[in-house]
Structure formats: structure tokens, C-alpha cells
Design goal:
Helices cover 43% and strands 14% of the residues. It has helices spanning 6-18, 22-25, 74-80, 84-102, 107-113; strands at residues 31-36, 48-51, 68-73.
């Protein structure tokens, strides 16, 4: 397992968010991105998780809602990577994958697009 300190990992997540094209980034609405060391115990290999209401499902009822949450799990990513470059790549893929869920893109479509 490669070691990436929490502060550096946070920088990688921020960098992954920052490369999202502005035309798309402006639609990321009411979302908090958090980093946690470990995923839920019932899914120990989970790398990221989107929790919320995708943009495609929001309607007039979606007012003053709690923020959606994207959780990025540091330790499973570090356990699967053998180099810093792999960590950077996997963080990018995971962040993009979870943001895609915010846009209403499901896992099957992401897999077809090569992002999941």
C-alpha cells in the first residue's frame, strides 16, 4: 500500500474537481465533497459514494434541501494503488464517477463510457 498523507490526498481530490470543465462545473449545485478514511463496513472496497438527489430528479420541491454529499474513501484507494501516479489517476476517476452520479448518470452508463 502506498502512503499519501491526508493533506496531500485532499489536494488530489481538489485537483480532480478543478479539472471539470467550467461548462459542467457551474451545474454542480448543493454538493459537499468529503474525504473519509474508510467506507461503510458492509462495502470495504468502495472508493466513493454519492448520496443525494441527482439533478435529473430535482423538481420544484427541491428547495432549501440539505446538500448532497460525495464521499471519497482514502484508504481503499491507497490499498489498490502501487504508485503516486496510480493514486492521482484513481482519485480523478473516482471523483468524476461520483460527480457523474450527481448529474444523474448511472453506473451502467458510466461503465459504457469507460468511467466506471
Amino acid at each position: 500500500m502506498i502512503d499519501v498523507p491526508p493533506e496531500r490526498f485532499e489536494q488530489l481530490v481538489e485537483a480532480a474537481v478543478n479539472v471539470i470543465p467550467e461548462d459542467l462545473a457551474r451545474f454542480i449545485d448543493n454538493v459537499a465533497i468529503v474525504i473519509e478514511d474508510e467506507p461503510p463496513a458492509d462495502d470495504p472496497h468502495l472508493l466513493g459514494l454519492y448520496e443525494g438527489v441527482p439533478l435529473t430528479e430535482r423538481d420544484s420541491w427541491y428547495i432549501a434541501a440539505m446538500p448532497d454529499r460525495i464521499r471519497i474513501f482514502r484508504m481503499p484507494i491507497l490499498r489498490m494503488c502501487q504508485s503516486q501516479a496510480e493514486v492521482v489517476r484513481e482519485v480523478h476517476i473516482t471523483v468524476v464517477h461520483e460527480i457523474a452520479h450527481h448529474f444523474g448518470i448511472d453506473d451502467d452508463t458510466l461503465h459504457d463510457l469507460g468511467v466506471g
